């Protein structure tokens, strides 16, 4: 199973969105190893340019996304991002949808 899935699983809802990031304002924290919390998925949206998403060892997967593409981010997987070509992206955060009893 890939640790970089093509899409988010069903049953999630968005609850937070970052501002747009560019090479000029990309936080150092996103350029170094970090992860989401348990149960939190991310969806990185590339608006312009290209971004590379890399998993931290012992994982070796990486993927490049171009404008119009997204990258799904699994909960608790240590990773970092870098621009391949200058551009702009943002990240949405998802968690399990609230159920009504």
TrEMBL record:
It comes from the Bacteria. Residues 16-91 form the TehB/YeaR-like domain. This is Hemoglobin. InterPro entries: RmlC-like_jellyroll, TehB/YeaR-like_dom. Pfam families: TehB-like. Signal peptide: none annotated. It comes from Methylobacillus rhizosphaerae.
């Amino acid at each position: 199973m890939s640790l970089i899935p093509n899409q988010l699983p069903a049953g999630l809802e968005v609850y937070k969105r970052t501002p747009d990031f560019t090479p000029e304002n990309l936080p150092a924290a996103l350029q170094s190893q970090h992860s989401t919390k348990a149960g939190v998925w991310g969806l990185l949206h590339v608006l312009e340019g290209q971004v590379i998403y890399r998993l931290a060892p012992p994982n070796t997967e990486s993927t490049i996304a171009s404008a119009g593409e997204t990258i799904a981010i699994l909960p608790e997987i240590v990773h970092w991002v870098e621009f391949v070509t200058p551009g702009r992206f943002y990240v949405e955060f998802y968690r399990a949808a609230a159920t009504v009893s």
